[in-house]
Amino acid sequence: MHTDRNALFQQLWRNYQEVTPSAEEIHRILGAEEGQAIINDHIALRTFNLAPVGLDALAEHFLSLGYVQGGEYHFEAKKLYARHYEHPDPDAPKVFISELLVEQCSPELQAIVKDLVAQVDPDRVKADDFLYSGRHWNVDYQTYRTLLEESEYAAWMAAWGYRANHFTVSINHLTQFETVPEINQLLKDNGYAVNASGGEVKGSPAELLEQSSTMADRIPVQFSDREETIPSCFYEFARRYPKTDGELYSGFVAASADKIFESTNASG
Ligand code: OOG
Ligand code: NI
């Protein structure tokens, strides 16, 4: 486990950038417009609900850094469960961790995923670098395609393994931009696809959170039998609104999250 929060997020960012060239470009576009550091609202991680890699095992890395558990979220159709974690330091990015409820999936998917997870060394899960260690299993392209037919999430996990699925820019901390539609326009002006599932702006002031995201970059992956280009990771943008007590809302909105998961789908 990391003992230094900044070191963990730096490594997560470095590993994410390797497969998300658009994030660095957009970072630069925003940075150029902003002339100041970009603050992350949150990052997201994915996993399967199987020992030794379930949501709780990933969360341990953040609990040991002083994070506390926040809300929980259910995604029945996608067969996902998620929780968020937040830190007493308001500058610390929040963490959204989801897991696929494998037992609800087909026997074929269950067999494939159990075989992948069986290849993970249980001791490695607690290691400093686990959260950005990528894939711990052999998987061929046809197996990826089989998973893709049933669960985009399972296929993404099989191909990419453990890494930040996205980083999220805090729009509240930007000075040149205030709204999600402004950011979406900037993205489109620079040639990026905005996830339009459920609308380009997800959430509302009434829900205290508005979000948008790019569609994932497409990057070549080395499967055990061949290389194929598939969706990798995406970049997200969040604007939070104050609750009645004046503090910014720190939770997530399940209906919005449900659509943001689709940013890694093969077609938006
Ligand atoms: C997480 C999707 C949900 C949010 O901010 O609501 C999410 C994922 O795609 O793994 O990031
Ligand atoms: Ni997110």
TrEMBL record:
Signal peptide (UniProt feature, chain positions): none
CC cofactor: Fe(2+)
Listed SMART domains: DUF1338
Record's keyword terms, sorted: Aminotransferase, Dioxygenase, Iron, Oxidoreductase, Transferase
EC numbers: 1.13.11.93
Residue ranges of the TM segments: none
Top-rank taxon, per record: Bacteria
UniProt-recorded Gene Ontology molecular function terms: dioxygenase activity; transaminase activity
Similarity remark: Belongs to the 2-oxoadipate dioxygenase/decarboxylase family.
Name of the molecule in the record: 2-oxoadipate dioxygenase/decarboxylase
Organism: Marinobacter similis
